[in-house]
Every structure is written in C-alpha cells, then in structure tokens.
C-alpha cells in the first residue's frame, strides 16, 4: 500500500500552506464555531505562538527550558502595567514587552548557560517558580499580588481610511515595493509603483467613500503577488504592462460598481466588532482610533496574523546561518565549537529570541483577557508549552500546531463530551476501531496472526452486549481490549504463539459476561454517568503523554533534518523509534 | 542563641525528609541520567496510602499506634516500590534509547497521571491523619527553652538510619557495587555479567519505596496533606539532590539538610533582616539557593566535573 501511496503525485508544499491558511481564515465563519469556540481558537492561537517561540529554544537550539511561562508572564505583565498605569495603547507595548522578556532572559541565562542539560532544565524551572512567587507576593508593589491586574486595554489602532493613515500606508507600500522589485526592470519597478499610487488616490473618490482605502491597500498587496508571478514566469515587457494594468483596472472597476455596498459593509463590520474612539493628537496630527470589542473574531485575526508572521520568520530562520548554527550546536556541541561557532553566544540568541517572542504572545494574552494573574503563568503552563513542542515533534513547525491541538484544544473540547459516549451511539465502535487499528498499524504484531487476534477481540467485545442488549457492557469490553493490547506483546515475548491463550481468555470473559452481564449492565451505567471527565483531564493527558512518547519518541511530526549533521545517511530519522520498539518488544 | 538552636533542630528535621526523598531522585539519575518527575508524586502516594491505611484498615490499632505505623510502613514500602517498578517498566524502559527530551515528557505524564488518580481517590481537600499518633513519646529537653519533640527525634533517627543503611548497601554489598557499575556504564556492566534491567528495576523499587516511607512520616509529622504535596515537596527534594551533586548519595543528604536548614532560618530571621513576609517567600529560597550554588559550582557541592563528551 505504501508503494502505491508513494507513486501518487505529491502536491507542492505551498499548496498545503495555502490550504491551511484558507482553513484558518474561514474557521471563525464555520457553523460549529460559536462564541466560546472562537474564544478557544484565540486561546489556542496564543499557545501556538508560545509553542513556536519555545521551539526556537528547545527544538532548534536543543536547550531544556521548563520555565517559559515566566517570559510569557513578563510580556503580559509589562503590557498590563503599561496599559493600566501609563495608558499606552496595548499593541504599542509589544516592542517594550519583547525587550523586557528578551532582556530578562539574557540576564538570567547568561550565568547558567554553561550548565549541562539537566541542570539547565532545573534552573529554568527555578526561574519560572521565582517569577510566579514574585508576582504572587506583589514584588515591587506593581504586580497586584495573587489577584493579578485588572483592566488591561483592548487593542486600538487608527482607522485605516481617515487621514493620515492611508498616506502613510501608501508611502510604506511604495518603499517596500521599490526595494523588493529592484531587479525586476524599469517597467515592473517604476510602472507598477506609479500605477499603484495612481489607483490609490483614484479609487476612493471614484467610489465616493473613504472606506475604499481598505480596498486600495488590498490592491497594493496584490500588486506584490502579481509582480512576483510576472517575474517568475519571465513574461515580457508588454505582458508586464498588461498584467499590472489589468490588476489596477479590475480594482477600479470593482470600486466603481460595488463601492457603495462594500463601504456600507465595512461600516457595519466596524460597528459590530469595534468601538470608534475619540480622535487623539499624536505629533500634531489627529488620529481616530478604533478599539476591539469583546467579541473574539477580531482577536482571532490579530492572533492569526501574528502566527503567520511567526511561521514565515521561523522558516527563514531555520535555514539561515543562525538556524544552521543552532542545528550544529544541538547535534554536537563540541564539533560545533571546533568549527568556530561561538556556542554560548548562539544559545543566548536562541533564548533571547524565544523569550522575546513569548513576551509578544503575553501582550496578545493580556489584551484578549484583560486580566493578568500569577496562576496563568505557573509551572503547569511551562510544562504544557514544553509538551506542545516535544509531543508535536521537537523542531518541527507543523508539530507545534498538532501539539497545540492535543495539549490545549482537545482537553477543552473534552469538557463538552459526556462519558456516556463510551456506550452510546457510534462511540464504542469508533474507539474500538481506533484501538484495533492502532494495534495493527503500530507494528507490534504482524501478518495473519495480528488480524485473527484483532478479530477475536472484536468478537468478544460485541458478544455480551449484543446478546444481552446491555450497551453499558461495551465499557468493560473496551477495557478488556485495551488490557489485551497491552498484555499481548509481553506475552509474545515469553511464548511464540499467544493466540490460544488469548482465545481462551476472551472465551472466559465472554461466558462470565453472559452470565452476570444483565446485573452488571445497570451498575456500569450508574458508574459511568457519575464519572466526570474533567476530574480526569490531567490524568488522561498524562496517559496520552506517556503513550505518545513510547510509540513515537521523536514526536508526531518529527523534524526532517534530525541527525543530518552528523551522518550523511538519512536513516537516523527512523532510528530512534525503531530502537525504542526493539527495546519494548 | 536559643531560637537559633531551636530553628536548627526544626530545619534538620525538615532537611531529613528532603534528604530521603532526594535519595530517590539521585539514585534514578545515577543509573538512568533521567529526572524522575514522577518521584514527588510517588512520595505523595506514600502519604496518601499511609493515610488510607491508618484511617481504615489499621484504624482499630490506633491504641497501639507503634504497631499500626509499623504495619502501615511495611505496606507503603512494598506498594510504592512496586508502583515505581511499574512506572519504570511502562513509561521509561521503552524510551531508554530515545534521546533526552522524550523521557522527560514521559516522566511528566506519569506525574500528571499519579496526581489525577490521587485527586480522584482522596478528593481535592486537605486530609488529616488520625490525631495523637505517637503523642506519648517523651520530649527531649536540651538547654533551657530548646527542646526536641519525641516525634522529631524519631524522624531524625529514622531518616538517619535510612541514609546510612542505603549508603552502606550501595558501598558494601555486591548488588550495591553492581548499581554503581551500572551508573557508570550500561554496556560495560552488561559485559561484566550484570543484569542491567534488573538493577534498574531494583533502583526503581528502593528509591520510590524510601520516598513513600518519607511520605508516610511527613503525614504523621505535619498531620495533614493534599494531592499537590508531592509536586512542591518533590521539586524541592530534587533541588536538594542537585545542590549536593546529583547521582551522589552523600550529596543528596547534604543538599537536603542545607535546604531544610536555610528554609527554616530564612523564615525565622527574615523579619530581622528586612524581609517582612518571609514565609510567603519561603518557597523561593530553594530556587535562589539552587541558582547561586550552580553558578559557583556547576555540578553541585559534591559533584565531580566530567566532560560530557570526548
């Protein structure tokens, strides 16, 4: 089957990116995304940022960091204090928060960087705890003690269609445009710039609405894409002129025809999601800021924007000189040092960068929840971030996304699920299919024997419940299947063919169940309904962590370049899980 | 001077507990180079099991509390020891060749699991041990106002006995020699005919069993506990192990005592040196101490400096 899969044409990597981005943009408009789930998506997005930032430290540079929550907290507290005490609009605190978090990281890490792995790990825990204890005890009298700080501001920014914002954006756009198209020839460079500028000031008056400056900005961005496309396709001068004119023309036409409804919908959306504030004077110019309302959608897109920026940055970083240096240090510090890499410096940069970015995530957190309290930055949070990175696959960006789904989103979604799914509807069958499928594909058992074993388990699972009509017996059945799956590999180590033993055990189980099932059913039902899944959330998470690591020690989506430094043979990527399986069987 | 002596005694008692729990961390680290994050929670399970036994099965024995406690200790030792072996078998052994990151996650997962089971078994509220356990032990009056309660004497004696016993076991017996060999090099030990897996299993029996015993003693000493006890106490005990130089049994003992004494001293003398609410900062002392010592001596007080790779 694997062979057939390999022969299928593989989509280019950017197709995955585009699909994922499209899904992310559409997500808040999907029907199952109610207010609380959108809120959860924002929360998860902040954890994706944290995971990505920690990924620099743990994944790229290979340093243990179990106190990341402290830098997240530093960012959040900095933003909250500046916003509450000094009335600074919260997004403007991002550079300060990043500097504070990154600077603090440099200060505390410098003296301890020479420590070996595990010592470093425990010292980072110590810093995290000192931070938490410090803010709980209201250090310097500015952290609000154990209740934390209330009333951090929501993000505000100037309206993009009221002067002078459009003019500033245009100047920025043109500068970037001219820089990026330096080697594209005069038509693309100057012609494109002139057309963009022209359209920028024709479109809004044409449609009769200042709001259409938003459309002009979109057009400016599209011009970038268009130029890249024209260059990549090596299209001649005439083609280039036509291409640019078409882009601008389409926008002008659209603005002229649909300008009114578009402006009205922009206005409507502004009222829905934003409060328009009183104009403020900055540098002698009047600005009209809009502030986020409580609704989660604007935050969702704010966080999404930051994630996209982060991912793009990480990718560039990964393959940069610095990124390769981290890889060398991670794989073999002595060799890296011998190659002339200043290892201390390199590690310090990783920690500073990761922590600064965690500080940025902290600002987003403070602006979203407006309350900043010590318990949000405790050791458990650090552990969750660490798990996001390692469970997903240390050093891998998609791994961080998957890790966040597992560590943040799934536990929250579990809140809604009642335990009765264990025997109601399709629940038991889905779980059984997952268990047996996992058993067959995990490679612990192979060939016909494994299929027969799975069949036996399934038969024993169905027999009592169907014969007696007591659905709750499925719960016991699932438990038995789980036990069988765990015990079988152990049994196989001692006896060559465990099949008769399994068959015997399952037969006994079936007979016993048939005998006592009708009395047992209601009892099980009572127990299951009394079971509150939230009480066991941490425990389930723990079991999942152990199981995941035992099955896939390198994470769910391992980083591709693992081990590439030391050995030219690529087999190392699979060596770790294979060795682990060998150990276990 | 009298308060100083009194605080020193209190600090020694707490330090004794830290030391015994730290032994478990240090032994496991010695043979596996693994931070056993679940150790603190197994220690808490010792307290929990002891509480469960003394309030139910052995409740009728409270008149003869020495016998009840002895019986409970034996059960706790066996139960927590087996728990340690099971965790090693399921969560650590499959990961022995999988790098350094994965076992940490696995250990944290095991800790979460133990905590969740404990919380659901005992409830989230604080539980109290039966009152008046070992109350008839005579206090030991030293000079003037300085006194050792009978309980403190007993705790110090037990902790001391455990530490000396373990030290002698590791240094003088054949199995102890095998343990030291395994902590140096698994492969060479295997060549010398040592069953490495069995030795590691044994370490995971002794360490948690002693931790569990300390848990039971702490329950008797303080009288109350809840399921978060293991996390905080375990982390501090681990710091004690690092302070002394991890992988080193006398180091763990020294680290434990240093930590216990400095904690008590800072809380007692904090107000005099201008730290008004010293007890609120008590938990931070261990961490500050850890950082200062590691900056000065990167491998702990008794740790040897070894190159990581050649």
SSE map:
The complex is a heterodimer of chains A (585) and B (310).
Chain A (H helix, E strand, L loop, with lengths): L1 H6 L5 H14 L8 H26 L7 H18 L8 H16 L7 H20 L12 E2 L5 E3 L6 H16 L4 H23 L5 H20 L4 H37 E3 L3 E3 L2 E3 L1 E4 L3 H24 L1 H11 L1 H6 L4 H27 L1 E2 L6 H15 L3 H18 L12 H15 L5 H22 L4 H22 L4 H32 L6 H15 L20 H13 L1
Antiparallel strand pairs in A: 1-7, 2-6, 3-6, 4-5
Helix pairs in contact in A: 3-11, 3-14, 3-15, 3-16, 4-5, 4-6, 4-14, 5-14, 7-8, 7-9, 8-9, 8-10, 9-10, 11-12, 12-14, 15-16, 17-18, 17-19, 18-19, 18-20, 19-20
Chain B lengths: L1 H31 L6 H19 L7 H28 L8 H22 L4 E2 L11 E2 L5 E2 L1 H23 L1 H11 L1 H6 L4 H27 L1 E2 L3 H16 L4 H21 L12 H15 L14
Antiparallel strand pairs in B: 1-4, 2-3
Order of helices and strands of chain A: HHHHHHEEHHHHEEEEHHHHEHHHHHHHH
The class by helix and strand makeup of chain B works out as mainly alpha
Q: Count the E strands of chain B.
A: 4
End-to-end distance of chain A: 25 Å
Low-confidence stretches of chain A: 564-585
| Rg of chain A, alpha carbons | 29 Å
Could you estimate the helical fraction of the residues of chain A in percent? over 70%
**Which structural class do you get from the secondary structure elements of chain A?**
mainly alpha
Tally of DSSP helical segments of chain A: 22
Give the oligomer, counting copies of the same chain as homo and different chains as hetero.
heterodimer
Strand content of chain A: under 5%
Helix content of chain B: over 70%
> Judging from the principal axes of the Cα atoms, what is the shape of chain B?
globular
């Amino acid at each position: 089957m694997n062979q057939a899969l390999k022969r299928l044409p593989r989509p280019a990597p950017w197709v995955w990116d585009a699909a994922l981005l499209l899904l992310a943009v559409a997500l808040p408009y999907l029907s199952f995304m109610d207010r609380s789930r959108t809120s959860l998506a924002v929360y998860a997005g902040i954890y994706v940022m944290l995971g990505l930032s920690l990924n620099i430290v743990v994944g790229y540079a290979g340093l243990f960091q179990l106190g990341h929550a402290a830098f997240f907290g530093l960012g959040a507290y900095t933003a909250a204090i500046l916003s509450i005490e000094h009335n600074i609009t919260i997004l403007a605190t991002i550079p300060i928060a990043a500097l504070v978090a990154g600077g603090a990281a440099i200060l505390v890490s410098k003296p301890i960087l020479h420590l070996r792995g595990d010592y470093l790990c425990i010292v980072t825990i110590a810093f995290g705890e000192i931070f938490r204890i410090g803010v709980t005890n209201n250090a310097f009298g500015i952290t609000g003690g154990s209740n934390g700080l209330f009333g951090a501001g929501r993000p505000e920014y100037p309206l993009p269609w009221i002067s002078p914002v459009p003019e500033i954006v245009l100047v920025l756009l043109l500068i970037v445009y001219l820089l990026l198209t330096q080697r594209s020839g005069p038509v693309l460079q100057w012609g494109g710039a002139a057309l963009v500028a022209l359209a920028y000031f024709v479109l809004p008056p044409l449609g009769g609405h200042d709001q259409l400056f938003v459309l002009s900005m979109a057009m400016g961005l599209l011009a970038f894409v268009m130029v890249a496309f024209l260059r990549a396709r090596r299209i001649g001068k005439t083609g280039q002129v036509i291409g640019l004119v078409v882009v601008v023309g389409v926008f002008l036409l659209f603005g002229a025809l649909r300008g009114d409804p578009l402006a009205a919908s922009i206005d409507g959306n502004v009222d829905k999601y934003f409060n328009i504030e009183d104009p403020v004077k900055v540098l002698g110019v009047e600005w009209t800021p809009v502030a986020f309302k409580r609704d989660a959608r604007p935050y969702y897109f704010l966080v999404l924007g930051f994630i996209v920026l982060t991912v793009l940055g990480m990718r560039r970083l990964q393959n940069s000189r610095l990124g390769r240096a981290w890889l060398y240090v991670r794989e073999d510090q002595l060799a890296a040092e011998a190659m002339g890499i200043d290892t201390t410096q390199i590690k310090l940069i990783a920690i500073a960068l990761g922590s600064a970015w965690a500080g940025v995530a902290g600002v987003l957190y403070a602006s979203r929840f407006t309350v900043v309290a010590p318990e949000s930055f405790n050791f458990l949070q650090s552990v969750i971030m660490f798990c996001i990175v390692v469970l997903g696959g240390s050093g891998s960006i998609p791994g961080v996304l998957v890790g966040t789904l597992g560590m943040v989103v799934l536990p929250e979604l579990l809140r809604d699920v009642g335990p009765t799914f264990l025997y109601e509807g399709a629940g038991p069958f889905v779980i059984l299919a997952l268990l047996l499928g996992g058993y067959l594909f995990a490679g612990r058992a192979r060939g016909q024997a494994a299929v027969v074993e799975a069949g036996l388990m399934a038969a024993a699972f169905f027999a009592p419940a169907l014969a007696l009509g007591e659905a709750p017996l499925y719960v016991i059945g699932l438990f038995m299947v789980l036990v069988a799956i765990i015990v079988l590999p152990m049994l196989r180590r001692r006896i060559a063919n465990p099949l008769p033993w399994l068959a015997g055990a399952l037969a006994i189980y079936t007979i016993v169940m048939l005998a006592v099932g009708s009395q047992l059913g209601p009892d099980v039902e009572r127990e299951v309904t009394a079971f509150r899944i939230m009480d066991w959330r941490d425990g389930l998470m723990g079991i999942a962590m152990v199981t995941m690591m035992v099955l896939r020690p390198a994470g769910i989506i391992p980083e591709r370049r693992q081990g590439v430094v030391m050995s030219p043979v690529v087999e190392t990527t699979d060596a770790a899980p294979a060795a682990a399986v060998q150990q276990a069987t | 001077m009298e308060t100083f002596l009194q605080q020193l005694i209190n600090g020694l008692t707490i330090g004794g507990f830290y030391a015994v729990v730290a032994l478990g961390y240090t032994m496991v680290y010695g043979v596996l180079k693994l931070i056993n994050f679940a150790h603190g929670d197994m220690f808490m399970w010792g307290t929990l099991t002891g509480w469960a036994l003394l309030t139910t099965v052995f409740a009728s024995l409270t008149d003869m509390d020495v016998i009840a406690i002895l019986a409970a200790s034996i059960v706790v030792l066996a139960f927590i020891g087996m728990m340690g072996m099971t965790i090693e078998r399921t969560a650590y052994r499959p990961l022995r060749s999988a790098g350094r990151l994965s076992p940490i996650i696995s250990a944290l997962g095991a800790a979460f699991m133990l905590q969740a089971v404990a919380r659901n078994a005992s409830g989230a509220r604080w539980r109290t041990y039966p009152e008046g356990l070992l109350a008839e032990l005579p206090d030991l009056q030293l000079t003037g106002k300085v006194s050792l309660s009978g309980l403190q004497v007993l705790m110090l004696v037990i902790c001391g006995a455990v530490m000396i016993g373990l030290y002698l076991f590791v240094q003088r017996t054949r199995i102890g020699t095998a343990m030291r060999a395994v902590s140096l090099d698994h492969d060479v030990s295997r060549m010398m005919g040592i069953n490495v897996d069995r030795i590691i299993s044994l370490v995971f029996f002794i360490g948690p069993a002693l931790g569990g015993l300390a848990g039971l003693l702490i329950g008797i000493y303080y009288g109350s506990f809840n399921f978060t006890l293991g996390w905080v106490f375990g982390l501090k005990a681990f710091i004690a192990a690092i302070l002394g130089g991890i992988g080193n049994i006398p180091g763990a003992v020294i680290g434990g005592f240093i930590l216990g004494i400095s904690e008590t001293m800072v809380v007692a003398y904090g107000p005099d040196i201008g730290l008004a609410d010293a007890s609120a900062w008590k938990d931070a002392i261990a961490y500050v101490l850890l950082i200062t010592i590691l900056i000065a001596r990167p491998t702990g007080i008794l740790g040897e400096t070894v190159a990581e790779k050649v």
